[in-house]
Design goal:
By secondary structure, the protein is of the alpha+beta class. Helix content is 38%, strand content 21%. Strands 1-2-8-7-6-5 form a 6-stranded mixed sheet. Pathway: Pyrimidine metabolism; dTTP biosynthesis.
């Protein structure tokens, strides 16, 4: 995982301090590329523990075309909860404590953090128990799963980009059009969070499948380790579906930034020595990519350093 650690060093040592949408502040660089040879092991960060199960359940959520956090909550995956809660807390139906700018306030005010956690648990409970509430406040809008599996074609129908790219790889492997886009300008304003990982392209050579992702915005400490593992896993899954071996994952970043309230955590992480990468294991050989469940996918030999906590910027 040296390419990732080098990115952290580059930003901390040479990045530009900037403001941002969340009001937190960042240090960033623009235009950076990392390459991971998937034959060298599965690129799951070892300098801090990274929750692989959450990565798996989120990716399968995308692949099923789902956009409602209820599905993730049922798997005890909370990584999208803040964006759904933000929608609820801003609605006229919400009558609880003021949650304006809750992400930043919670990072500096322990009493408010306790109140936020209490309100968040109430919200999760309603999402899981109330079908109507879940439909209204659990849906994140036309985010990744919608664009990947049901991109509106402008003619009243939809385009299944994932099925199309699998078919393209199988039947025309040398094509330069093995592309899936999540950035739909007509629907960006309706999304809880405009897609950060905006477009990816596959490439076939010598019986191996490689993938390059373009990510417009990259939260380097919290988000990027997830993104690396998620798209490495996607490359493995698409390779499995098309009868190829996994090749490389290439990660191209636009605005690569470290939030100012993550500086201490990044500094701590850079003092740690990377450990050997784990191996990916995919069970259920008869299942298609669309039928896999979280329990079918695991890593072996993962021995990371302890987790480093940091607040999320919403």
């Amino acid at each position: 995982m040296e390419p990732y650690l080098q990115l952290c060093r580059t930003i901390m040592e040479n990045g530009t301090d900037k403001g941002d949408r969340t009001g937190t502040g960042t240090r960033s660089t623009f235009g950076h590329q990392m390459r991971f040879n998937l034959e060298d092991g599965f690129p799951l960060l070892t300098t801090k523990k990274t929750a692989f199960r959450l990565i798996v359940s989120e990716l399968l959520w995308f692949l099923k075309g789902d956009t409602n956090v209820r599905t993730l909550m049922q798997e005890n995956n909370r990584i999208w909860d803040e964006w759904a809660f933000e929608k609820w807390a801003a609605s006229p139906e919400y009558d609880g404590p003021d949650m304006t700018d809750f992400g930043r306030r919670a990072a500096s005010d322990p009493a408010f953090k306790w109140t936020l956690d209490e309100e968040m648990e109430k919200f999760r409970g309603r999402i899981l128990s109330d079908d109507g509430f879940a439909r209204k406040y659990g849906d994140l809008g036309p985010v990744y799963g919608r664009q990947w599996r049901s991109w509106p074609d402008g003619k009243g129908g939809t385009i299944d980009q994932i099925k199309n790219v699998i078919d393209s790889i199988q039947n025309n492997p040398d094509s330069r059009r093995h592309i899936v886009s999540a950035w739909n300008p007509a629907e960006v304003e309706d999304m809880a969070l405009p897609p950060c990982h905006t477009l990816f392209q596959f490439y076939v050579a010598n019986g191996k499948l490689s993938c390059q992702l373009y990510q417009r915005s990259a939260d380097v400490f919290l988000g990027v380790p997830f993104n690396i593992a998620s798209y490495a896993l996607l490359t493995h899954l698409i390779a499995r579906e098309t009868g190829l071996e996994p090749g490389e994952f290439i990660h191209t970043l636009g605005d690569a930034h470290i939030y100012s309230n993550h500086f201490d955590q990044v500094t701590e992480q850079l003092t740690r020595t990377p450990r050997p990468l784990p191996e990916l294991v995919i069970e259920a050989p008869a299942k298609s990519i669309f039928d896999l469940e979280t329990g079918d996918i695991r890593v072996e030999g993962y021995d990371p350093h302890p987790k480093i906590k940091a607040p999320i910027a919403v």
